[in-house]
Each structure stands twice: as structure tokens, then as C-alpha cells.
Amino acid sequence: MARIKCPSNVSSITLSTSGVLSPDAVGIITCTAAEATALGSSIANINQHGCATLVDTASNGDINISVPAIITSITINAVVYAVSGAATPFGKLLASRVPAPAASSFLYQNFLLVNG
Q: Does the pLDDT value for residue 63 go beyond 90?
């Protein structure tokens, strides 16, 4: 099993393999080694790209975010964002843009491999 630290404004993440995972009291989810590997190509390069990646910014400041393909939805600040399936070099796009304050916190903290 692997443990991954989530951004503080993420209350759940849905993976295509194991379904909904909710962070514990300190923001850590536990997933399988295979799931960590699927997330890991981005997490391993956290200093360069991060697991979640800013793709572009709309004129109103909302952010288009790409996440690893294993993620099917993610809840940020109590709003569920589905993954649209549109491929990017970093994974797949969220179906809708995330407001700048929520996106900034999410992208700044990003996901970190704790162990696994």
C-alpha cells in the first residue's frame, strides 16, 4: 500500500480502479502500489510539474487543470470536478475550470508521495 498527501482543499478523489478515497485527518489517502505508480509519473516529478498541472487560465481567472488519467473525479472545496477525458501531455482535463482561489491552493500544495 502507498500513502499520498492531498492538497488541504481536497475532500475526496475517485480513482478508476478503487473508487472514492477520502483523505484522513491529516490529508493522506491510502491506495494500492499500482495506483501510486499510475499517479507516480507525475508525483515523482513534483518539483518540475506536480501531479495536477495548470493548463491555461480563462479571462475571468478560472484555471483549467489536468490530472493523471487514473483520476475520474476530484472534490475541491466541496465542489465535485469530473474528468472530461480530453487528453493532455499531463493526463486528462477536469470537465470544468476551477475558480482561481481554489485552484491556487490545490496546485500550490499538489499531491506528494508519503511512502509506497
A: yes
Report residue 59 as a C-alpha cell: 479571462
Domain ranges of the chain: 2-115
The phi, psi pair for 32, rounded to 5°, reads -75, 165
Query: 3-state DSSP call for residue 26?
Result: coil
- Determine the Cα–Cα distance for residues 79 and 102; give it in Å rounded to an integer: 10
Task: Evaluate if residue 77 carries a pLDDT over 50.
Answer: yes
Confidence of residue 61 (pLDDT cuts 50, 70, 90): very high
Instruction: State pTM to two decimals.
Output: 0.87
- Give the closest residue to 72 by CA, choosing from 100, 45, 91: 91
Instruction: Return d(Cα 115, Cα 102) in angstroms, integer.
Output: 26
SS (H, E, C) 50-71: CCCEEEEECCCCCEEEEECCCE
